[in-house]
Amino acid sequence: MLTFGGRPSITVPVGAPVVSDPVVLDIKSLDSLSISLYVPRATGPTATHPSGAATTYISDGGDTTAAITLPNPNTSTARFFISEVDVAADDPDAGTVIALGDSITDGGSSTVDANHRWPDVLAERLVAAHLPLGVVNAGIGGNRLLHDLPRAQFGPAALARFDRDVLSVPGVRTVIFLESINDIGHSGSAGLSEQAVTADDIMAGMRQIIERAHAHGIRVLGATLTPFADAPFPGFYSKEGEKKRQAVNRWIREGGAFDGVIDFDTAVRDPARPDHIAAQYDSGDRVHPNDAGYRRMGEAVDLVLLRKSWRNVT
Q1: Residue, of 65 and 244, whose pLDDT is higher
Q2: Are 47 and 84 contacting, i.e. CB atoms less than 8 angstroms apart?
Q3: Residue 142: which region, alpha, beta or left (left: phi > 0; alpha: psi -120 to 50)?
Q4: Full 3-state SS string of 3-59
Q5: Distances in whole angstroms, Cα of residue 17 to Cα of each of 13, 81, 92, 160, 165
Q6: 145: helix, coil or strand?
Q7: Element (H, E) at 219
Q8: Opening angle at CA 275, ends 270 and 281, nearest 5
Q9: Is the pTM of this model over 0.90?
Q10: Do residues 79 and 106 touch, judged by C-beta distance below 8 A?
Q11: Which end of the chain, N or C, is less surrounded by CB atoms within 10 Å?
Q12: Nearest to 148 by CA among 156, 140, 159
C-alpha cells in the first residue's frame, strides 16, 4: 500500500504535485505496473492524460483498491491523477531519456494496451543493448511548442511545461524533441489566425528548449517532423504549412543547434511522395503512424547518440 508521509491518504493541493513514500517492489525492466486509487467523492476537474493508449478500469463500488479484479468496471483510455513513477536503479550510471512531444510521441492511433509507441520500442532496444537508461514518454496529444490553445486538454505548450516535464524528472541525460507539426496545423484547423507561426518562430522556440536544457547539462536530440499531407482535419494541412515543415526539418538536420538528429521524417515518409507518410506506416489519418510506423521510428533512433549521454562522452 502506498503511503504519503506515513499516512494512507492525501489531499492534493490545487496545481501542486504529491509524491508518495518509497515502496519496495520486485520488478524487472519493461514490467507493467497497475496503480489503484480510491477517490471517496466527486473531485471536479482533475489532472488527466486524455489518451494514454492503455485501459483504465473504473468502479463505483466503493474502495476496491485491494481487489484483483473489478466487477463490471467502466473503462477509459485516459489516465487520471498519476503523472509519473520514479524507479530507483542499482546501477550508478543509470539515467533517463525523455521523449518530449505531441500525439506522435504519445502513441496516438497505436494499439491500446500493446505498448507499441515509438518510446516503448526505444525502451526495448535499450534493455536489449544493456544500456541502463529509462525512457519517459512526455508526449501529449495535440501539444504545441509555442501555444497552449486551442484546447486545454492539449496541455501547456512545450516551452511552458519544460520545467515540469523535463527538469523535475530525476536523472535526465537526454531529451528527444519531436514537436511543432501542431504549431503549423492548429492555427488553420482551429480558425486561430492570430496563432499562425513562421518557420523562424518554431526554430527560435526550439533554440529556447536547447538552451534551457544545456543550462542543466542535458543534451537535446532534434527529431524531424513527420509528413502530414492530406491530413483529414480541415485547415490543418496546406502547401504553405508544408514549406514550413521542410524549412524546420532542414534546420534540424543542418543547423547544428541540436546535439544530434533523429530523422523520423525520412524513416516513415513515402519516397515517391515525400510530403506523405508511407502507406505501410499510416494509421489511416495520414498524420499518425500505425504500429509498424511507430516501430520504424523507434528503430530509427541511433543508440550511439544515447550512449554519449550515458557515459558523458563527447
Answers
A1: 244
A2: no
A3: left
A4: CECCECCCCCCCCCCCCCCCCCCCCCCCCCCCCCCCCCCCCCCCCEECCCCCCEEEC
A5: 8, 10, 27, 16, 12
A6: coil
A7: strand 219-223
A8: 40
A9: yes
A10: no
A11: C
A12: 156
Q: How far apart are CA 104 and CA 188, in angstroms?
A: 19
CA distance readout (Å), 181 to 137, 145, 219, 249, 273: 18, 9, 22, 11, 18
Torsion of CA 247, 249, 250, 255, to 10 degrees: 110
Query: Grid coordinates standing for 278?
Result: 508511407
What are residue 193's DSSP bridge partners?
none
**String of DSSP letters for 55-119:** -EEE--SS--TT-SS-SS-EEES-EES--------S-TT-EEEEEEESHHHHTTTSPTTS--SHH
Apex 270 CA angle, 146 and 257, nearest 5: 40
Q: Please name the amino acid found at residue 143.
A: N
**Burial category of 57 from C-beta neighbours within 10 Å (exposed 0-12, middle 13-18, buried 19 and up):** middle
Task: For helices 303-310 and 118-128, give the axis angle rounded to 10 degrees.
Answer: 70
Grid cell at residue 221? 536530440
Taking only the tens place, the pLDDT of each residue in 4-51 is 999 999 998 888 889 999 999 988 899 999 999 999 988 887 878 888
Enumerate helices (H) and strands (E) in the chain, giving the number of each.
9, 11
Structure confidence by residue, pLDDT tens digits, 43-73: 887 878 888 999 999 998 889 998 988 888 9
Average pLDDT over residues 152-162: 92
